Amino acid sequence: MACVDFVTKLHQSTPRDYLGRVNSGDKARYAEAAIQYGRDYWDGERSTGYGGYVYDGRWRLVVENIIRYYGLKPGSRILDVGCGKGFLLYEFTQALPDVQVSGIDISQYAIQHAKEEVRPFLKVGTAVKLPFPDRSFDLVISVNTLHNLYLYDLWAALKEIERVGGKFKHITVECYRNEQEKVNLLYWQLTCRAFHTPKEWEWLFNQAGYTGDYAYIVFE
């Protein structure tokens, strides 16, 4: 288990107005809309989520780095837990011949509006109970998903990822390293349920028996 970062550069490319969001006066209402994971979250205003989550190729470099780091080969089996609209998985299909991709997400809206090329390989479901046999995949990846779970579901999800994964597993979660980052995270987040420092996350990974790699994004 090692800290291996693939996403920070992409995360830092998006500007965020922390004070603007928290001072809007309606953040609680926006959060209520966001946690439905419907149109408001994916394709509504920025106040309730992504402000329009459209394909623009930004995940290609992330995927190329993942393939290179783990030495993935043509025909590798990859699962994305919290796949959203499937953009990450689509990039795997473009970068790696004959790759076998699967995705699962709690949002029916996201699956229905996923990238057409990978939509047949995506399912509506929960990370708490993955509908796959043991050791089904060469790589299980989860980007910016597990921090949206309450502790009891997070615990179950970690065990499920460990169960269905093979040699390679990678999780990216939000966290904070100091008081400023904690405030920024609290101001910005709409769906987060698990607010932890890196050491706390690592403790959770170990306690749940998760043996894969991990990374953090922070709100500086």
Features:
single chain, 220 residues, alpha/beta, Rossmann fold, six-stranded parallel β-sheet, 38% helix
Strand order of the largest sheet: 3-2-1-4-5-6
CATH class: Alpha Beta
Mean pLDDT: 96
Q: Roughly how much helix do the residues carry, as a percent range?
A: 25-40%
Unreliable sequence segments: none
What is the percentage of strand-forming residues? 15-25%
The total count of strands amounts to 6
Q: What count of helical segments does DSSP give?
A: 10
Q: What name does CATH use for the topology? A: Rossmann fold
Structural class: alpha/beta
Gap from first CA to last CA: 25 Å
Give the topology string: H per helix, E per strand: HHHHHEHEHEEHEHHE
Molecular structure report:
With 220 residues, the chain is α/β, with parallel strands linked by helices. The chain has a single domain, classed as Vaccinia Virus protein VP39 (Rossmann fold, 3-Layer(aba) Sandwich), CATH 3.40.50.150. The chain has 10 helices and 6 strands, in the order αααααβαβαββαβααβ. The protein has helices spanning 8-12, 18-22, 27-34, 39-43, 60-70, 87-95, 108-112, 151-164, 179-188, 198-208, and strands at residues 77-81, 100-105, 122-124, 137-143, 165-174, 213-217. The chain has a 6-stranded parallel β-sheet. The longest helix has 14 residues, at 151-164. The model has no long low-confidence stretch (mean pLDDT 96).
Question: Helices and strands in order, then pairings?
Answer:
Elements lengths: L7 H5 L5 H5 L4 H8 L4 H5 L16 H11 L6 E5 L5 H9 L4 E6 L2 H5 L9 E3 L12 E7 L7 H14 E10 L4 H10 L9 H11 L4 E5 L3
Parallel strand pairs: 1-2, 1-4, 2-3, 4-5, 5-6
